[in-house]
C-alpha cells in the first residue's frame, strides 16, 4: 500500500536538460518509491497548459539557445511558479533554469533574457567557461558534489542565501566562492552530474517538503546510501 502520491513536474525536458539532469527526476522517483510513496512524473513544455495539481518542481540546465526558446513560456507560467514558491512548494533548478529563476541573464553578446525573479540574483555572460568537478560545503546538506559547465556568472542579492561555499571549483562565479542559492523551499545550483544521485540529502529535503505540504508529514524509510557515498568519495577525489 502506498503512503501517498506526489506529482513531480519536470520543466522543459527537451530544451532544459543537459549533462545528465534527467537523473534528478529518476532519483526523486526512485527514492520516493523506496520511501513507500508513489511518484507521478509530469512534464511541462513550451505551450503546454500548466498542470493544476503539482507537489514538486524540477528543472535542468540548457544552452543559451535553449534558454531563448523557453523564455516566453517561462514568463507566461511565472505568476503560477511565484505563487507556488511562496506557498512553500519545493523546487530544484539547475544551471540554465537557476539563472532564469533570478532577475535576468545577460548573455556574453549582450542579449538580456529576463528571469522570473523568484530568486534575488542576476547573471552575466562572460568569455570564461567554468568547467569541472565541484565540492561545496553547505550547512543544510553537508558536503555537496557535482559538475559545473557554464559561462554565465551569478551574483546573489540580499534576498537569497548561498546553497554552499566551494572548496573545489568555482560555483556561482569566479570571485566570491558561493555555489547555488536557497530561498523558501527553492534549491538552485550550478551542479550537474546529475546532482541528486550523489546528494541524497537534497533529494530527501525536496521530498520531505513536498510530503509535508501535501500530507502534513513525511514518513521516510531508512535507505542505504552507501553507493551514493562511494560516488561522492570518488567524485571528491577527482581533479577539476
Ligand atoms: N547557458 C548557460 C551558461 O552557459 C547555462 C549553461 C548550463 O545550463 N550548463 O551559463
UniProtKB/TrEMBL annotation:
Name the active site residues.
Answer: 95, 192
| Alphabetical list of SUPFAM superfamilies matching this protein | Class I glutamine amidotransferase-like
> Which parts of the sequence bind substrate?
129
Which stretches are annotated as coiled coil?
none
Which EC numbers characterise this protein's activity in its record? 6.3.5.13, 3.5.1.2
Q: Which reaction does it catalyse?
A: beta-D-GlcNAc-(1->4)-Mur2Ac(oyl-L-Ala-gamma-D-Glu-L-Lys-D-Ala-D-Ala)-di-trans,octa-cis-undecaprenyl diphosphate + L-glutamine + ATP + H2O = beta-D-GlcNAc-(1->4)-Mur2Ac(oyl-L-Ala-D-isoglutaminyl-L-Lys-D-Ala-D-Ala)-di-trans,octa-cis-undecaprenyl diphosphate + L-glutamate + ADP + phosphate + H(+); L-glutamine + H2O = L-glutamate + NH4(+)
**InterPro entries per the record?**
Class_I_gatase-like, CobQ_GATase1, GATase_3, Lipid_II_synth_GatD
Q: Which domain of life is it from?
A: Bacteria
Q: In which pathway does it act?
A: Cell wall biogenesis; peptidoglycan biosynthesis
Where would I find the CobB/CobQ-like glutamine amidotransferase domain in this sequence? 8-199
Q: Which UniProt keywords apply?
A: Cell shape, Cell wall biogenesis/degradation, Glutamine amidotransferase, Hydrolase, Ligase, Peptidoglycan synthesis
Q: How does it assemble?
A: Forms a heterodimer with MurT.
Q: Tell me its family.
A: Belongs to the CobB/CobQ family. GatD subfamily.
* Function, as annotated: The lipid II isoglutaminyl synthase complex catalyzes the formation of alpha-D-isoglutamine in the cell wall lipid II stem peptide. The GatD subunit catalyzes the hydrolysis of glutamine to glutamate and ammonia. The resulting ammonia molecule is channeled to the active site of MurT.
HAMAP family, per the entry:
Lipid_II_synth_GatD
Q: What is this protein called?
A: Lipid II isoglutaminyl synthase (glutamine-hydrolyzing) subunit GatD
- Name of the encoding gene: gatD
